[in-house]
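Take just one protein record:
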Amino acid sequence: MRSVGARRRKTRAGVVLTADMIVDTALRLIDAPGGDKLSVRRLGAELGADPTAVYRYFRDMDALLLAVADRLIGDALNDFVPQDHWADSLRYLADSLRRSMRLHPRLAHLRAVRVTAGPHEMRTVDTGIGIMLNAGFAPADAVRHYRDFVDTVLAVAAVDAAPLTDEQEEAEQQAWSRVYASLPAGEYPNVHLVREHLPSMYNSAFPGTVEKLIAALVAAAPSR
């Protein structure tokens, strides 16, 4: 959020500092190696400005990170096109958010748990609730169903986006294909019964979860 009375000033490099420039630079640093250690000092150095200049546009680093998250929401939904059926619009919305989360994994958790109250999030909320209203849900139900849908989408997408090293990826796969699959029937009868299917536990739950949500909404939608 840009602070009230923020003035457009030039950096040491002679560039006029703006809120958008700060957001762009912060996102670039976050996505770069070591981006999990973003600081005002590092941001100021990259901008060629005194670190305190950031506070003329954002009250603190939390406000800046929310602005970055809101920018990513906007990027994800820039090309959103309502589909012929409202359920397909929900799929489009879910897939767009997931792709964005995977492109910027360090911000995935923030986006899953925080409300930015920024212009892009506002537009997305309006779009999502509009989809529910178009499905025929009453206003209160439209809000409730949108909340359940988008919160679940963001949560599962954040799990998908969580960065793992190659060694961690290998360990995850081995856990399901070897460790769990070899558990003795006497102690773990149910796991043993489905042991040949356990490697699929490593696959993303996102597609199946989204389809279950949409199927439940289609079943609950009023006849129109």
